[in-house]
Amino acid sequence: MNHLSEFRILLYLLVVIPTFLFAQERVKLIPEGAAEPEHLKNRYEGNSRQLNSFRPANIRPSSPDELDAAARQRKEMQATSILKNYPVRSIGPAVMSGRVSDVAVNEKNPRIYYVGYSSGGVFRTVNNGNTFEAVFDHQRALGIGDIALAPSNPDILWVGTGENNSSRSSYAGAGVYKSTDAGKTWQFTGLGATQHIGRIVLHPTKPDVVWVAAIGALY
C-alpha cells in the first residue's frame, strides 16, 4: 500500500465518516420546527466537562480612580528605576505604533506636523517626515483619538486620548491634554472618565475655547 492510499483511508476515517454521522444525528434528533430534545439540554459546555457550567466572566472596567493610581505608580517606578538615566533607542519594528488615528499639520509651516497613533502616542516631525520624535510617551495614556493645533498659535496642541474606534483592540484613554510649547510639556485638562475622544475643535482665534466630542466607554 502506497502513501497516497494510506492518506485516503485516513481522510475517510477522520472526515467523511464523522461528517456523515453528525448529519444523520441532526436529522434524527432535531426535526425542523421542533423543540430541542431533553437529552440535548444536558450537554457539556465548552471544555469544562461539567454540565451547563459556563458562566460569563464578571470583569468590570477600571474606574478613573484606579487609572489615576496606576499612572502615579508608573511615574514612581520611573523615578526610582535603576535604568532611568540610560537612553533607550528603538531598533524596530518600524510600524510598532499600529494604526494612525489622526494627523495635525502646522498650516503656517507644513513641514511640521503631528501624527497620533491608536496605541502608540503622538510623534512630531519638523522636516516633512524624514525623522519623527515621540512627544507623548510619559502621559497617562498612549491611545490617541484626536489631535488639534490652534489656528492662532501652532505651538498650542490639544490631544484627546482613547482611540476613536470601537473594536476589541481599542484601548481606553485618560482624557484631554494640552501643550503650549509644541509637545515639550503637557497639562491634563480634564474628562479623564470619558475613555474615548472622537473629535477636538478649537476656536479660530481663542485657543483656550475648545469643543470636545467623547464616545464614552465602549463596554
Structural commentary:
It is a single chain. By secondary structure, the protein is α+β, with helices and mostly antiparallel strands. The protein has two domains: 3-41; 96-214, 7 Propeller (Methylamine Dehydrogenase, Chain H). It is 22% helix and 24% strand. Strands 1-2-3-4 form a four-stranded antiparallel sheet, with no helix packed on it. A four-stranded antiparallel sheet has the order 5-6-7-8, with no helix packed on it. A hairpin with a 7-residue loop joins strand 1 (100-105) and strand 2. The longest helix has 27 residues, at 3-29. The radius of gyration is 27 Å and the shape is elongated. The chain starts with a helix and ends in a 5-residue tail after the last strand. Mean pLDDT is 79; it is low at 44-49.
Count of helix runs: 3
Indicate the CATH class of the largest domain. Answer: Mainly Beta
Oligomer: single chain
Mean pLDDT: 79
CATH fold title of the largest domain: Methylamine Dehydrogenase, Chain H
Give me the secondary-structure category: alpha+beta
- How much helix is in the residues? 10-25%
CATH architecture title of the largest domain: 7 Propeller
Spatial extent as radius of gyration: 27 Å
Instruction: Count structural domains.
Output: 2
Number of strands: 10
What is the helix/strand order?
Answer: HHHEEEEEEEEEE
| CATH homologous superfamily classification of the largest domain | YVTN repeat-like/Quinoprotein amine dehydrogenase
For the terminal residues, how far apart are their CA atoms?
59 Å
Biggest sheet features: 4 strands, antiparallel
Trace the largest sheet across and list its strands.
1-2-3-4
